[in-house]
Structures are given as C-alpha cells and as structure tokens.
Amino acid sequence: MSRGGEARLGPPVYPAVNRAFLLVFVGGLLAVAALEVTPARTVREKLTGRELPATCAHLAAGGGPCPSCGLTRSLVAAAHGDFAASRHFHPAGMPVLAMLVGQCLMRVAFLWPRLRRPRLDLVVSAGMAAAFAVLVNG
After folding, report:
1. Bridge-partner residues for 37, per DSSP?
2. Where are the beta strands (DSSP E) in 8-131?
3. Can you give the pTM of this predicted structure?
4. Which of 46, 77, 121, 137 is the most buried (most CB within 10 A)?
5. Strand spans (E) along the chain
C-alpha cells in the first residue's frame, strides 16, 4: 500500500504486467500481419491459405450485423496499406491499428525502469479502451 492506503502496482508486479501486455499486443499485430483480405473480401491465413469464417457467429445466428462486423477485414486491410478498403470494411480499423501500434511502442518504452510511468500507462490505456468502445459502437 502506498500513501493514502491505495494499492500500487510497483516492482515486480508492474514490469511483469507490462511484459504480458506487450506480448498480447505484439501477438495481435503479428496475427493481423499473417492474414490477408482476398479479392472475394474474405480473410485467409497467408501461409496456409485457410479462410476464416465469412461471417461472425452473431450474424450467422441471424442476429444481424454486430457493431464490430468488418473490423477484422478492416484491420487486415489497414495493416497491408489498403486504407480505402479498410475504411469500407469498418471505419474503426485504422484507429484501432494505430492504438495497437501505440500500445506496443509505449510498452517497449516502459521496459526500461527509468521510463516507466504506471499512472500514465493507466490513463493512456483507459483512454484507448474508451476510444475503442466509441469507435466500434459508432
């Protein structure tokens, strides 16, 4: 506990949490980079050629499109530089990709003890989460 009785993410908890988040965000970027949007507007793995399901479970169940419909295709298109297609698939694709890259850069910087700013991390991450919710839900 720190002053005022509040819990604190100090050493060694914060570095471990930061590394875990870095792995998650880098994994997400690698997953997006390993996919491609086909001419038929489906998404497939580049190495195996296996296509991902054409529709999400919500749409397949007859519930109509969900707020994130098209986001995967949008992220993949943006990651490969096709920004017009990215905007067409989902307007949040490019900002979400920018948030993923921003999180990776921030987490790499926070690997060095003198650059760590847990409170800044909390504020930036909470802001990005709120922005994601607003972007996806329009």
Report:
1. 43
2. 35-37, 43-45
3. 0.81
4. 77
5. 35-37, 43-45
* Burial environment of residue 35 by CB neighbours within 10 A (0 to 12, 13 to 18, 19 or more): buried
Which alpha helices (H) appear in 56-92, and where do they start and end?
Answer: 57-60, 71-79, 83-89
SS3 45: strand
Measuring CA to CA, which residue among 124, 88, 96, 112 is closest to residue 28?
96
- The whole-number pLDDT of residue 10 equals 54
pLDDT of residue 91: 93
Rounded distance between C-alpha atoms, residue 115 and residue 19, angstroms: 14
Instruction: Provide the number of structural domains found in the chain.
Output: 1
- Rounded average pLDDT per 10-residue block, the chain, 138 residues: 53 85 95 92 92 78 80 94 94 94 95 90 94 87
User: Is residue 135 a part of any domain in this protein?
Assistant: no
- Give the Cα separation of 94 and 70 in Å (integer): 12
Identify the domain containing residue 20 by its residue range: 10-56+65-125
